[in-house]
């Protein structure tokens, strides 16, 4: 969902100049994918964050741009189907010689599940670590900054979106519909979701997706504990609502996806490849100190 808390966090980060504590030998390049309502290159968000990481870590950083302009890139967060975006990014990565020896990936909000699709569908060049900040790996069932349980108005709009989300024309033209996950109607979700249900192996099990995801060294999922954007927040750790209702949630380990091993996450957990981190703030609100302490070890 939209990176509403990101600007303040990134401004803090950008205030930090490169210091004597910087990494002296460059590591792998970094690929970043922005969230809804952002672009690759706004100087007050990912454009500035790119410069910060380059100065701090001394590595090549690629902030993904969809299309040939900032305007198109901005619109992509709403109107270009994720499957088209993933295909475009796969071509970008394959055509970038600086990524030939592999890279680490950071996905902001919905950019997190998009980069996971890259890991599963586009194994070359190799993604080493995948870091998702507020990603919605089991989808969403709620509106940004609109708590559906406590607000009748929010509930009305949520039901309206739920009614239309699985229509083919909505799936084709609205990005958020492709990861709208209705726990009250799992069958409709699995049959009609044109993106999330596929990358989560909900309809058929794509063994290639499993094999490619297993190639990650670490899959790091960051959950924002006071998130008002992602509903439910457990989706950031691959949890979700229990099927058939929208109040009680379950952890990844309790889900059908995990128990039936549809993505090979059981094996990844046994091999300590899954990392679950908490950040005490709203969506994408983090400080430089938190980022350096918690994320730098994976970069």
TrEMBL record:
Residues 1-20 form the signal peptide. Keywords: Disulfide bond, Glycoprotein, Hydrolase, Signal. InterPro entries: AB_hydrolase_fold (IPR029058), Palm_thioest (IPR002472). Its EC number is 3.1.2.22. One of its GO terms (molecular function) is palmitoyl-(protein) hydrolase activity. It is an enzyme of class 3 (hydrolase). The keyword Glycoprotein applies. It catalyses: S-hexadecanoyl-L-cysteinyl-[protein] + H2O = L-cysteinyl-[protein] + hexadecanoate + H(+). Belongs to the palmitoyl-protein thioesterase family. This is Palmitoyl-protein thioesterase 1. It comes from Culex pipiens pipiens (Northern house mosquito). The lineage of its organism: Eukaryota, Metazoa, Ecdysozoa, Arthropoda, Hexapoda.
């Amino acid at each position: 969902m939209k990176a509403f808390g990101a600007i303040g966090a990134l401004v803090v980060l950008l205030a930090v100049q490169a210091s004597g504590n910087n990494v002296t030998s460059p590591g792998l390049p970094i690929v970043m994918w922005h969230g809804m309502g952002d672009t690759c290159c706004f100087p007050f968000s990912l454009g500035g964050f790119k410069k910060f990481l380059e100065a701090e870590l001394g590595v090549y950083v690629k902030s993904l741009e969809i299309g040939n302009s900032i305007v198109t890139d901005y619109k992509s967060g709403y109107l270009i189907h994720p499957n088209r975006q993933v295909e475009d990014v796969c071509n970008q990565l394959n055509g970038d010689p600086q990524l030939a020896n592999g890279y680490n990936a950071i996905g902001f909000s919905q950019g997190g599940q998009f980069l996971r699709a890259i890991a599963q569908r586009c194994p070359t060049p190799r993604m080493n670590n995948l870091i998702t900040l507020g990603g919605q790996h089991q989808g969403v069932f709620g509106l940004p900054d609109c708590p559906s349980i406590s607000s009748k108005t929010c509930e009305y709009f949520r039901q309206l979106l739920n009614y239309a989300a699985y229509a083919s024309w909505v799936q084709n033209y609205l990005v958020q519909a492709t990861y709208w996950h209705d726990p009250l109607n799992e069958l409709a979700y699995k049959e009609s979701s044109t993106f999330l249900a596929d990358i989560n192996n909900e309809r058929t099990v794509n063994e290639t997706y499993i094999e490619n995801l297993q190639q990650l060294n670490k899959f790091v999922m960051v959950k924002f504990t006071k998130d008002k954007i992602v509903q439910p927040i457990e989706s950031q750790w691959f949890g979700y609502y229990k099927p058939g209702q929208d109040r009680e949630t379950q952890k990844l380990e309790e889900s059908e996806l995990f128990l039936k091993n549809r993505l090979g996450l059981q094996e990844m957990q046994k091999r300590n490849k899954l990392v679950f981190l908490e950040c005490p703030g709203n969506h994408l609100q983090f400080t430089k100190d938190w980022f350096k302490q918690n994320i730098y070890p994976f970069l």
